[in-house]
Amino acid sequence: MIAENLLNIKSKLPSGTRLVAVSKFHPVEKLQEAYDAGQRLFAESRPQEMAAKVPQMPADVQWHFIGHLQTNKLKLVLPYATLVESVDTLRLLVSIERWGAENERTVSVLLEQHISQDATKQGFTEAEILMVLTQAVRGAFPHIRFCGLMGMATLTDDSGVIHGDFSRLAETFAKAHSMLPELTEFKELSMGMSDDWPLALEHGSTLVRIGTAIFGPREY
């Protein structure tokens, strides 16, 4: 069933859009089944779970971190993550820069924009994102590679609201490109999950984060 789900979703993705299999709360056996079906890009949202799964999976797996990352948990994520999609505060960004300097590593990140109507969600405003990226171009974060933006739409059945959320993220992405052409690696727009990824594709998503539609309901 996992192989069928992957094939079905990938058949609907345009070229240039990658599928991120959100494997959080699912056992390694299910991840291995997806791997055997050709999936290589997985995402976790809890540092301890990610650190435990990495050594149990083949070495060519690419890991994205998509959850809220506390600064005291960086050592559980940054050594393994190909991309940290959920950088949502300046404090976290500064901590990642410090870790990168101490470990002589460059960390690839996406800045998370708060696009949802849910006030409890994390993320930067558009103005904050443009400010951070301007500082980056000026050399403020030499150990961070800014690869794009991530956002989570409002949890609702109203497609108009979801379209509006994704549109705001796409507008920020375009504005950053226009203002700061020096950001040559700023190419990823991560938006869309199991319930709304077809809508995200209409706004240029390059990464869709899908879990339940691949693996079924969470198991723990």
Structural features, described:
- This protein has 220 residues and is α/β, with parallel strands linked by helices.
- It is 39% helix and 18% strand.
- The chain has nine helices and eight strands.
- The protein has helices at 2-10, 28-36, 47-53, 74-77, 90-103, 126-137, 159-179, 197-201, 212-215, and strands at residues 18-22, 41-44, 62-65, 83-87, 107-113, 144-151, 188-190, 207-210.
- The protein has an eight-stranded parallel sheet with strand order 7-6-5-4-3-2-1-8.
- Strand 6 (144-151), helix 7 and strand 7 (188-190) form a beta-alpha-beta unit.
- Helix 6 packs parallel to helix 7 (159-179).
- It is globular and about 50 Å long.
- The model has no long low-confidence stretch (mean pLDDT 96).
Question: How much helix, percentage-wise, in residues?
Answer: 25-40%
Q: How many extended strands?
A: 8
- N-to-C span: 19 Å
- State which percent range the strand residues make up: 15-25%
Uncertain segments: none
In angstroms, what is the radius of gyration? 17 Å
Mean pLDDT: 96
Give the strand order, joined by hyphens, for the main sheet: 7-6-5-4-3-2-1-8
Largest β-sheet summary: 8 strands, parallel
Descriptive tags:
globular, alpha/beta, 220 residues, single chain
Give the SSE layout:
Elements: H1 2-10, E1 18-22, H2 28-36, E2 41-44, H3 47-53, E3 62-65, H4 74-77, E4 83-87, H5 90-103, E5 107-113, H6 126-137, E6 144-151, H7 159-179, E7 188-190, H8 197-201, E8 207-210, H9 212-215
Parallel strand pairs: 1-2, 1-8, 2-3, 3-4, 4-5, 5-6, 6-7
Helix pairs in contact: 6-7
